[in-house]
Design a protein that fits this description.
Distance between the termini: 104 Å
Radius of gyration: 26 Å
Structural class: alpha/beta
Strand content: 25-35%
Largest sheet: 6 strands, mixed
Oligomer: single chain
Shape: flat
């Protein structure tokens, strides 16, 4: 009898601790939902962009962008009807400023330009350039540590730009894609007709 009482008491205590552990989690989830936070994989992507090809000159950037897009539910496929083409990536370390006692500030800048295209090469919308920058203090007496910090900052700048790119892709509607593709196809058709008329 005494053993049974001990067992019941242990079960009640375990249940009590479980409730105490779950309540904060439920509270945090409710707050995040209330402020509009969306978990990865829950973005409302236009069906036209459920498959996407991603190409570009920087292998690391393209790999990370593909991974981020995949997390939203987009299937990365080289034969997809739309292509996201990263046309230019420019990483720049600015001029020295505010030098003092073996250290100086530099402005680190990362610029990325990309173009959305159809699978037959029609360029949709104007090319989009995203830029991100941050000041960085380089210590001349700790060159290795400064180089590592610079690399970390550029990684963070790259991740911010990738996140912005994913949000912009997710914001595109199927209607706007179809209308833009139709507009560009009409322009191309007129250009071909004009070219044929001159020949």
């Amino acid at each position: 009898m005494f053993r049974q009482l001990l067992t019941q008491r242990a079960i009640q205590q375990a249940s009590h601790f479980q409730k105490r552990a779950i309540l904060p989690l439920l509270l945090i989830t409710s707050l995040l939902t209330a402020c509009g936070f969306q978990l990865r994989g829950q973005m409302d992507i236009a069906s036209e962009l459920s498959e996407l090809s991603v190409t570009g000159p920087d292998r690391v950037f393209v790999r990370e962008l593909r991974k981020a897009l995949s997390l939203t539910g987009i299937s990365i496929n080289d034969d997809a009807p739309y292509r996201l083409v990263v046309t230019r990536i420019k990483q720049d370390t600015g001029q020295r400023t505010h030098s003092s006692a073996g250290s100086y500030e530099q402005l680190l800048t990362l610029k990325v330009t990309y173009q959305l295209e159809t699978d037959d090469g029609l360029k949709l919308f104007t090319p989009m350039e995203l830029s991100n920058e941050r000041y960085f203090t380089r210590n001349q007496n700790q060159s290795n540590a400064s180089s590592n910090e610079e690399r970390i900052i550029f990684d963070e700048l790259r991740q911010d730009i990738i996140n912005t790119t994913v949000r912009r892709v997710a914001a595109m509607s199927g209607d706007s894609l179809r209308q833009e593709a139709e507009r560009v196809r009409k322009i191309r058709k007129k250009e071909q007709e004009a070219l044929e008329a001159r020949e």
